[in-house]
């Protein structure tokens, strides 16, 4: 924008200049609760009220200082853009507004960027400043975001954007509107390049910024109380002439509706981003396959009573997907939401490192207590759950990391809500998606594998089953009720369905069996998880280095053959 822009950016990255001026000495009145807070305490708490938790607005320079490691910060230079393309005048000429905003903030535009590291992980960060004409997006701001994205692509490092905006800048007319297209295109190019993108939403984020790059990131986190939306509440209330609900457009409400991954307090943002960047960084060489980690010969499995298997698989003491994630994966970072309607608690997922290799884990989540089981709908996923799983699998493919799915469900959620939200469509879309994924996919039926609700996470290159898990087209009780006209025949139905590990292996439905401790995984969860770790590491090692097209072709051949004459007892 101007000759002094580079100097302004450099100066505002100085930690001394980036400190909250009004909090340096004396007392500060919290804008929300009005309680007095000692200035130094307010500053140490990153401009968050220690009494009520209100997050005061901070400038873009303060934001970069708070997020980036102190050493090695390199500000991004400004780019040449138009200054006053329309000759716009309202109460004062547009160039005068720009000069006043620059004098008030020390910035040349509402976005500044820098290269640096967050807890040692290289990133490019672009931060918006609401103090500069309401953080509105004009040509300079759109160009800054596009340049930051281009640099992240060239250097193959993640891009983090911190948003704070009232929307598009009216004084630049349609040119401002075009910045939505420019920045969205820049994020599409990062998708094509497999570069992780993260948005940190601060209050407020509205209009053209919200409807472009802010919501296109792979991971969206928001500060507590931050508001995000297309139209501002005042516009909506005036248009509809009705009062909006409490918490409308806040981060907490958006989290419940699956629009963002997490609500993170400002004091925890840096460490949260550091964990995410660590989990997703490229891995080293995977270990060699362990020949005994997976049982591939059904004759090695002792005969089992099918109903006993069903009973063990349903035992509420068995480890859950989140417990597996916590112990199997280093730095597991859970992600939330389907970006459309909700965050189904019956499916969980996120990024972590398995034996040094980043993986995307997706799984059904049950629980141990009645309260947990009810809260997780007994592991029966809604359409939002399957859409969340699909979103995470697409992200894994973008980042070129393997997918591990852990299956433990009686089936997909039934009921009016699930049907109204398109349960069949969601499951079908997942089946189609998984047939196209160009990364290794390993699925493990760790407990119940119930019908299409299980299959929706199980179209994998390798499908395993725990020794006391089962996989079936229908529950034994359902089968008995339909064919024997009474649930009393459930044990008989279980035998006829051939749903236990040995039968599944003989039929070729699964590729291997994961051993369990005597008495089942519930008898010794730690040993069970070590056995599962060995099976996953070994199986992923088998798929490491296989070209993307070969992975897709192999997976399609695997499922194409079912029902052909070769699919008889004795395998393939």
Strand content: 15-25%
Largest sheet: 8 strands, mixed
Give the overall silhouette: elongated
In CATH terms, the superfamily of the largest domain is: 2-enoyl-CoA Hydratase, Chain A, domain 1
Question: Care to describe what's here?
Answer:
With 572 residues, the protein is an alpha/beta fold. It has 23 helices and 18 strands. The strands form three sheets. Strands 3, 4, 5, 6, 7, 8, 9 and 10 form an eight-stranded mixed β-sheet that branches. Strands 11, 12, 13, 14, 15, 16, 17 and 18 form an eight-stranded mixed β-sheet that branches. The protein is elongated.
Please write out the topology.
Elements: H1 5-12, H2 15-18, E1 27-29, E2 36-38, H3 39-44, H4 60-67, E3 74-75, H5 94-105, E4 111-118, E5 121-128, H6 139-155, E6 159-165, H7 173-193, E7 197-206, H8 207-210, E8 219-222, E9 228-229, H9 233-240, H10 251-256, E10 262-263, H11 266-280, H12 306-313, H13 321-328, E11 330-334, E12 347-354, E13 357-364, H14 370-375, H15 383-399, E14 403-409, H16 416-420, H17 423-434, E15 441-450, H18 451-455, E16 462-466, E17 470-472, H19 476-484, H20 490-497, H21 501-507, E18 512-514, H22 525-543, H23 548-560
Helix pairs in contact: 6-7, 15-17, 19-20
